[in-house]
Amino acid sequence: MTRSTPRTRSAHRCTECGWETPKWAGRCGECQAWGSLVELAPTAVKGASRAVPTAVTSAAVPIGQVPIEDSQSRSCGVPELDRVLGGGLVPGAVVLLAGEPGVGKSTLLLEVAAQTARGGSRTLYVSGEESAAQVRLRADRCRGVHHDLYLAAETDLGAVLTHVEELKPDLLVVDSVQTIAAQGVEGVPGGVTQVKEVTAALVRQAKSRGMATVLVGHVTKDGGIAGPRVLEHLVDVVLQFEGERATRLRMVRAVKNRYGPVDEVGCFDLSGEGISAVTDPSGLFISRHHEAVPGTCVSVTLEGRRPLLAEIQALVTASTGERPRRTTSGLDPARAAMVLAVLEARARVPLMSRDVFVSTVGGARVQEPAGDLAMALAVASAAQGLVVPPELIAIGEIGLAGELRRVPEVDRRVSEAQRIGFTYAIVPVGPDGAGPRHVDGMEVFAAPDLRTALRIVDLRTARGRAPKRPPVG
Question: What predicted TM-score, i.e. pTM, was given to this entire model?
Answer without folding.
Answer: 0.77
